[in-house]
Predict the 3D structure of the following.
Amino acid sequence: MTDSQSYSKPNILLIMADQLAPQFLPCYGHPLVKAPTLQRLAEEGVVFDAAYTNSPLCAPSRFVMMSGRLPSQIGAWDNAAEFPAEIPTFAHYLEHLGYRTCLSGKMHFVGPDQLHGFGERLTTDVYPADFTWHPEWDEPDKRLDWFHNMEVVTKAGSCVRSMNLDYDDEAVFKARRYLFDRAREGTDEPFMLTVSLIQPHDPYLCRQREWDLYADEDIDLPRLPPSAAADPYSQRLRHGYGASDLDLDDNTIRNARRAYYGSVSDIDNKVAGLLQVLEESGFKDNTIVIFTSDHGDMLGERGMWFKMSFLEHSARVPLIIHAPGRYSPRRVGAAVSLVDLLPTLVDMATDDRGVEYVTPIEGRSLSPHLAGDAGHNEALGEYFAEGTDTPLFMLRRESTKAIYSKKDPLQLFDLSNDPDEINNLAQDPGQQSAIQAIETEITERYDIKALTEKVLESQRRRALLKTVMQRQSLAWDHEPPGRASESYIRNSLPAYELLERGRFPSA
């Protein structure tokens, strides 16, 4: 089959991990982590080797991915910023194009709209939908009591159960049932199902069976020591979550990484289960499978953990698009980002690519890359949350990456020759004209003073509103509708007829 072969509208299965850095997947070169299903998807699919989040934090990254808009355009400041209901998402566009859309798992929507275009949502979210988790730029050195802390590192290991395991098991179970329900219906109506998991997000815990896939002595330690976190922003992050207070021994670091690897293997098993349903239900040949994450995890590199940084382990994401009959397997080295997913999904869902967007978008379709043609080679990043009190920006163009804020010295890296980001070219006298051009581009693109005031005003508003919501016991968390009266055996039809309807394939 060729890239140009004709098909009906494809089904789309988008699978998301949370806080999964591509550097810890075998298909991106990790020699130890066991993820054979993702490895197979990569071998048969299109792998993007330089895909980025546009904001290295859960909620902003997801709002950007769904809307095709950068954070500053939609007020996606942090993990407690409302995602406005009037912003069109890929779910809205696909519903408009005749798709049935469904979400099972996490999307970290904040605000009373907990669907944002999805026709169905099978689970509640794993995180709260209110305003509590906002930064406080008025007190930038304050440690926030709800923020990441190093206890999840020092207490990492194996467990029987955890909240993350409970959540992911539920999200995948309900997604598998949804797929079988669509198969029982026998309709030609295409679906777009998003399955969004919380693993391998901290706390760094995994089941014993995944823990035992790895030997302690085999676990690789970070390539760079804490002394490599010399820039002021990295130092503030380490202070904010308490890493600067600790001198972790190698065994503690290995335990956290071993549990993270175990969680990746658990994700891989869950992806395998979803793919099995696609095959058993007959959807396999006409379903595009996309695998990605919202951001990465430093996982001890430079003595840093979690995300919130535009360094590679935090800012890069895996991106695999699997549809062997539509797209020939290949690897794409060009820089792309999650903001590009909305126009890409719309392209997949329409034959004439003639959809008119009702609002400007910053995303650019990945369709040229998927077809093997030249596409864009640029990723933009914006960050407005913890660890700073002024906007932080990233510009990745070709192999050059710049990280800029008014508060800190510029960081400039040539990733083709310096993938570990050790040599900051901003110190090179020969780079001064390039540095000036980057700073001019960013300061002309953004009114940084006005952006800062917008963020501060939003934080101050939410500081008031969250106290009122708590006093009123008001919550926006999604409550999946129950359908007990329509489930299993009921008196709506003879029992044998209901039993026969539940059989797949039918006799």
Observations:
- The two ends are 33 Å apart (CA to CA).
